[in-house]
Design goal:
single chain; 232 residues; alpha/beta; 2-enoyl-CoA Hydratase, Chain A, domain 1; six-stranded mixed sheet; 9 helices; 10 strands
Length: 232
């Protein structure tokens, strides 16, 4: 598919593996490749669910640091906004999705996982939202997503204090639904993808429209505001 993501068909489950180099950063190229995959996936009658995976030991370390540490603020805003659009597209999609968190998932990596329906992760994966510790404020769309998916008792620590989680604590906080040994993550996620692919598409869409529409609309509005600030 591209040098930044690998696509593999497993019957009715489509696996998209991030393979963008050291740390598996989410770059403009990764986002463009994902959009292309989703364009095809959403129209496909043969694929009923999506699994997003990473490299062994690392799901994604977040947005491309070459951009995030650069001096072009508009490019930073554009990257974060486009990342938000990808997460929003997955979160509000009409087909179920699974995150196979093969290793550490930090910042945008953790947010990408939170956007999926089911999250299976390695027992040694570290996950968290370190933005505040890095002197940044979570984008509004990310805060909305965190409030929707994380355990309320951990929300303050996970966002405002940038606590990092590991092992069973990822489940307690709400970053993951299930932990398994690292070498079983993709296999278990594909099994979950098969289960989700068997759901009634009509019923799934109906439930998601009712359950997530207010959150989805709020995320979309926040992203549009942020992108407008960068002229995108």
């Amino acid at each position: 598919m591209s040098e930044f993501v690998d696509v593999t068909e497993h019957g009715r489950v489509l696996e998209v593996r991030i393979d963008s180099g050291k740390g598996n950063p989410i770059s403009f190229e990764v986002l463009a490749a994902f959009d292309e995959v989703l364009d095809t996936f959403e129209k496909s009658e043969s694929h009923g669910s999506l699994v997003i995976s990473g490299q062994p030991g690392i799901f994604s370390g977040g947005f491309d640091l070459a951009v995030m540490r650069g001096e072009n603020i508009d490019e930073v805003i554009r990257l974060v906004g486009l990342g938000g659009r990808l997460v929003h597209r997955i979160f509000s999609g009409h087909k179920p999705s699974v995150a196979a968190v093969t290793g550490h998932a930090v910042a945008a990596g953790a947010l990408l996982a939170l956007g999926t329906d089911s999250r299976i992760g390695a027992s040694d994966a570290r996950m968290g939202l370190p933005e505040v510790a890095l002197g940044m404020v979570l984008p509004d769309w990310a805060q909305i997503l965190a409030e929707a998916r994380l355990n309320p008792s951990h929300l303050q620590q996970a966002t405002a204090t940038s606590r990092m989680y590991e092992g069973a604590d990822n489940v307690a906080a709400g970053f993951l639904d299930e932990i398994v040994p690292a070498d079983q993550v993709v296999e278990r996620a594909l099994m979950e993808g098969e289960r989700l692919a068997d759901l009634s598409p009509r019923a799934y869409i109906g439930h998601m429209e009712r359950h997530r529409r207010p959150l989805s609309d709020a995320m979309a509005k926040a992203i549009d505001v942020e992108m407008a600030a960068a002229g995108s």
